[in-house]
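Supplementary Note 3. Input sequence used for the single-chain structure prediction.
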Amino acid sequence: MTASAIPAPMVEVRGVHKSYGPLEVLRGIDLTVRTGEVTVVLGPSGSGKSTLLRCVNHLEKIDRGHVTIDGEYIGYRRVGDRLHELKERDILRQRTNIGFVFQNFNLFPHLTVLQNVIEAPLSAQRRPRAEVEALAAELLERVGLSGKAGAYPRQLSGGQQQRVAIARALALRPKVVLFDEPTSALDPELVGEVLEAMKTLARDGTTMIVVTHEIGFAREVADTVVFMDDGLIVEQGPPAQVLDAPRHERTRAFLGKVL
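The predicted structure, written as discrete structure tokens, is reproduced below.
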């Protein structure tokens, strides 16, 4: 691959540290996710995976280091060699570039599927209703829910609710979509339908960072697999290298338990 053919970095995490009191959760994370690529983050519970995602969209304030998305500092503006925290309204504007799919769907129970999908583009981005509704219909079709626009979350299975959450994240037309264990709250028979929707996004060139325990998904879809433990990136590389020929004993031990 020539240098010009390598996609530009979309997400850059540099020297990120995060502590809660005396507990150091992230201990200097460096990560680059290129445009159109899928990065899957694996690791045991408590390794810092979810905290890393929440730092990427500034749901958690980092202690040291910085995150940029498409060249823009997230949560801060640079003045000379110093970073100054942005006002909340500016942070909220930045977050409209970052889709986030949570473990537990987080749909508004009093809104229909369609209303859930169009709410943020209308209120946060002030886009025209007709445009947003047309996009929502297209997105619901992409995730296999075109017949459910008028349904309420309580009328849907967990897998359907999570697919609505994916459509909702995409409705913002984000530059990157973050997934925090999107199948962990689902019954096993519903996991496949959500992973299938995510595979479609990957094929369409969506830039994604996915925290998951689904090794098969990582093997099939990821461009890069990252293994985290104890607040550090222990190992990262193509799926074939990290999953089939891991270099670190800690990675081998983890995969030996989950494969």
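The radius of gyration is 18 Å. The first strand starts at residue 9 and ends at 20.
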